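ARCHIVE CARD
CATEGORY: sequence design from structure
SOURCE FIELD: tokenized fold
FIELD CONTENT:
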């Protein structure tokens, strides 16, 4: 999968955010891909701005290759978490984490209530994000700061930071507003210094008042999180070590799917649907909004 990562800069952030947005609400069970029997997760905020067609397509391509070689013995959930780990390694240098396998694929998408546990990019108070992360077992301010450190890569659609741009209350928000007024398809790097490398320059942007998302700016305005933003900005080795540990812990949220299967006919439908055509109402990868907007 390294050739696609080298040729498509949207893949790494797309895979990392697919991993987070699948695991955080209701365990790592590849439910984020499902379009049946309930409303697809990709239609709920904040998923609809982050699901990249290229990342979706890569996971399905990997599933086909693995199943052709080994039979239906590896779940879409396992394929996603391994792909996300390799994406992190590709853009993060020394960042790596163990990934025990053996997950099952979920039988239904997460509910809107479960997906709402992911903080919105429009969150203005760090306290709101801290509470949501604590509900998933990440109850230290440093953990919130580390997770949002993934905003060091990727690009955001104007819609995902419209609230910040429209306020025009500082030089950077006015720049964002100008870009989007002049180009509705503008993709803003979440970290304009090193947009394709997972590093600590994102934290420098936050402290300089140049976070793209409202939730980014919230980290710098709360003393509980600001101190950790400063720490990781000044200690990149600690960031790499701690981010690795945290990404490894993410797949333990709620312990994985208690009931599930290994999807045989594609990552986008459960086996009961059968091998035929897709389900009416499926959101095709080409219709996804892109890899830009971050979740929090």
């Amino acid at each position: 999968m390294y050739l696609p990562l080298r040729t498509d800069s949207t893949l790494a952030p797309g895979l990392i955010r697919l991993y987070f947005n699948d695991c955080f609400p209701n365990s790592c069970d590849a439910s984020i891909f499902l379009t049946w029997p309930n409303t697809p997760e990709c239609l709920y905020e904040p998923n609809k701005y982050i699901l990249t067609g290229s990342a979706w397509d890569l996971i399905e391509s990997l599933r086909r290759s693995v199943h052709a070689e080994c039979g239906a013995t590896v779940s879409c959930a396992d394929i996603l978490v391994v792909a996300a780990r390799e994406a992190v390694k590709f853009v993060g240098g020394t960042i790596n984490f163990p990934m025990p396998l053996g997950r099952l694929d979920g039988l239904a998408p997460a509910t809107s209530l479960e997906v709402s546990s992911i903080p919105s990019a429009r969150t203005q108070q760090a306290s709101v994000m801290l509470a949501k992360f604590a509900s998933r077992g990440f109850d230290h301010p440093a953990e919130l700061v580390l997770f949002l450190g993934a905003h060091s890569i990727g690009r955001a659609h104007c819609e995902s930071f419209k609230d910040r741009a429209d306020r025009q209350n500082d030089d950077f928000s006015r720049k964002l507003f100008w870009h989007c007024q002049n180009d509705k398809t503008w993709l803003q790097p979440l970290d304009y210094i090193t947009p394709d490398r997972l590093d600590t320059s994102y934290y420098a942007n936050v402290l300089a008042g140049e976070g793209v998302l409202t939730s980014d700016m919230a980290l710098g305005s709360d003393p509980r999180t600001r101190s950790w933003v400063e720490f990781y900005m000044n200690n990149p080795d600690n960031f790499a070590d701690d981010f690795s540990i945290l990404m490894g812990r993410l797949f333990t949220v709620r312990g994985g799917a208690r009931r599930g299967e290994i999807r045989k006919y594609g990552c986008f439908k459960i086996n009961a649907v059968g091998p035929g055509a897709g389900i009416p109402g499926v959101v095709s990868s080409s219709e996804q909004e892109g890899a830009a907007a971050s979740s929090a």
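CARD ANNOTATION: The longest strand covers residues 155-157. The two ends are 27 Å apart (CA to CA).
SHELF: design records, drawer C
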